[in-house]
Amino acid sequence: MDARLTGGFLSLVAVLTAAGCLISQDELAGTSCQLDAECPESYACVGPEGQRFCEIIYPPRPAASDAGPTDAGVPPTYCADIKPVLDGYCTANCHGPLTNNSGQNDFRLDYYEPDAGQPKGAREMASRIRYRAFEIRTMPPANSPSPSDAQRALLGRWAAVGAPFCDGGTP
Fold it and tell me: Are 35 and 123 in contact (CB under 8 A)?
């Protein structure tokens, strides 16, 4: 192998190794919490009641000015566009009324906003839906039916434009 190519490859390995070491030194992950406000800016409070902890959200939650492609036509709404996707791929298997197999009892995706005493709904989870289903694509988990790329993009855009309910109104 050419010396320049070998040197470049070794430099890349060194940088990636150093970055991996820095990333793995996340001292704040796992800190006990009850609310998102108790976690640093790039973290969310997750887990079942009594066992909640701070988990890093990467990339960080988008700022209002970082809303993504908001000028791509009529914004998707929960009622017309998002609920069918969530029902087909999220609530039927894990995040619905009868099938909470996820271990996440603090939210459900079969409704937009909760009634008194219910866990968070899709509106409050919109940025996490965008991150997990659209950006890093870890939801639904492997070996589960998954939405198409177009459906994932729809979820991401819905969250980016503020997670509107039905025709921009509120429930």
Answer: no
Cα Rg, the chain, nearest whole Å: 19
Residue among 83, 107, 85, 88 at smallest CA distance from 97:
107
Determine the straight-line distance between the first and last CA of the chain, rounded to whole angstroms: 64
In angstroms, rounded to a whole number, what is the distance separating the alpha carbons of residues 68 and 83?
Answer: 21
Token pair of 125 as six digits: 């989870």
> What is the SS3 string spanning 41-109?
CCEEEECCCCCCEEEECCCCCCCHHHCCCCCCCCCCCHHHHHHHHHHHHHHCCCCCCCCCCCCCCCECC
pLDDT number for residue 152? 95
pTM: 0.60
